[in-house]
Design a protein that fits this description.
Length: 281
């Protein structure tokens, strides 16, 4: 199950996954101020990335304005992921969609259906509760046996009565701060979103930084470069472990589910070593 027999009996929310931030934002072209990765989605999957955070605009993968970077239609990337899932029947994949254009689920489901990846989509048997946590997540083995191995979250406009497999992110997930300004001396781990201080079952550990330009009262954040990631050692096992120690002080023994990096391949395979460490495998 995701490469380790030890993970088969664990519930989905008890497993850590290697995750990329703005997974689609890779070259070409090189040198853009909006890039977050060096490798394609296919390469990320081959390397071991199992969770993907993507911005969605005009049913294309791009950030606010597709004039800066446009990685094409959502359906085309879903086809790439489906091909991988077809060839790797014991892998569980997660998509977290940032719905900047405010699409309704019915606007997105045709892309899942055309790519035929919807056949793998996980549909929970539980309903949202007022505590927003404590759900009976299935084990990875159960998800694999049922072939419901694709978990899809969206941060806005979810409606499971309309599309059962596009799940409301903030019902199940909390994120720790993402607007970390370079250089970062210590990554924080407090609950940033939602800002209601109510824990959820899943945690996104944002471990990346931005360059910040302040003009008057306005902050303009752009991703740091791969060179800066390497220079500051953000993706090193030491940096990840230091962040983990901070998180233990906040979340005690909770699992950090989605370890989210920019330029995840800078630092070699330290991301995957760290995920294995969190998983104890």
């Amino acid at each position: 199950c995701n490469g380790h027999v030890e993970l088969c009996d664990r519930a989905y929310n008890e497993v850590s996954f290697a995750c990329t931030h703005n997974s689609y934002a890779y070259p070409p072209p090189k040198g853009l101020p909006v890039l977050n990765q060096d490798k394609t989605i296919s390469e990320q999957l081959s390397d071991g990335v199992r969770a993907f955070i993507n911005l969605l605009n005009s049913v294309h993968l791009c950030h606010t304005s597709c004039a800066l970077i446009d990685k094409g239609k959502l359906v085309d990337t879903l086809k790439v992921i489906k091909e991988f899932m077809d060839a790797n029947p014991r892998e569980v994949i997660t998509l977290i969609i940032e719905n900047v254009s405010g699409f309704a689920p019915k606007d997105l489901s045709p892309s899942f259906e055309e790519s035929e990846i919807d056949k793998y989509a996980f549909k929970p048997e539980f309903k949202p509760n007022k505590e927003h946590n404590g759900y009976a997540w299935p084990t990875l083995e159960s998800m694999i046996d049922k072939d419901e191995r694709l978990v899809v979250f969206i941060d806005d406009k979810a409606n499971t009565n309309e599309v059962a497999y596009i799940l409301p992110e903030w019902e199940y997930i909390v994120e720790i701060p993402y607007a970390n300004v370079n250089p970062v001396e210590k990554f924080p781990c407090n609950q940033d979103r939602p800002r209601d201080s109510i824990p959820r079952d899943l945690i996104v550990m944002n471990h990346f930084a931005y360059n910040r330009l302040t003009i008057g009262k306005e902050n303009i954040d752009t991703p740091i470069t791969a060179y800066q990631v390497k220079k500051h050692g953000y993706n090193s096992i030491d940096s990840l472990n230091a962040h983990w120690e901070t998180c233990k002080g906040v979340w005690d023994k909770r699992v950090l589910n989605f370890i989210t990096l920019d330029y995840y391949d800078v630092g070699g395979d330290d991301l995957f070593k760290f995920v294995n460490q969190v998983n104890g495998v």
